[in-house]
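#lab-general

N.A. 3:47 PM
ok so I finally got the sequence cleaned up, no stray characters, all 269 residues accounted for. can someone with queue access submit it? mine expired

B.Y. 3:52 PM
send it over

N.A. 3:53 PM
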Amino acid sequence: MGLRLEDRKPITEILQQTPEIPASCQWCLFLRNHDELTLEMVTDIERDYMYDLYARDKTMRLNLGIRRRLAPLLDNDRRRIELMNGMLMSLPGTPIVYYGDEIGMGDNVYLGDRHGVRTPMQWSGGWNGGFSAADPESLYSPPILNPVYGYQTVNVLSQMRSEHSLLAWMKHIIQIRRSSPVFGSGSIEFLYPANHRVLAYVRQLGKETVLVVNNLSSAAQAVELDLRRYKGNILIEMFGRNVFPRIGDLPYLLTMGPFQFYWFRLRRI
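B.Y. 4:20 PM
back already:
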């Protein structure tokens, strides 16, 4: 909802309403999950809004939820898929990636119940997508065959051969997340810049501080962040390890492309 509204408010509000749990526990976070497709905990207005944007065809709905995978929900837009996974990996809790979402698998809304998002894993472009050597007619669930999400187009083997594939990108962001314990165990503090299209927060654990900035908009944005408490620190972008200007007394200005996000380590050098 925050992504479609291009507004951080739905995200910050729901996280502020999330109950406290023991320090030794964590919430499980996921973008999609076949066992939890429901929208029963949102308001009727919010549910109607989500239906209108993401499930206009009633075959895409199940009970009070939407039975669709991540890639089709986001119109197979690589930038939005990366942004959503960037937020998943940088928010507090244990991130869970539903099988197939790491390669951008599609769904089959014409299968009953939750089976539309439980189609066979697409390992290769070969027989039955490499899932089974059985006759296709004998499979419990048919593989996806359409030209956009079919196993001949979207599969693990082909993406392993490209360093620019979604699978390679997912491996890289998981590696970066694991490089700092702050993502798994650190505190979170939201920043509230004037630009409501930008979601920014600080993750902190001990002496380690990471700044996360997400552009929820389909257009380029500029944002000024109040980082004066970190005056004297430089920002090191975690994906490219590039150094950004030092924080001073003035609001820190960042410019961001459509659906772009940054992870910065703060260092006093």
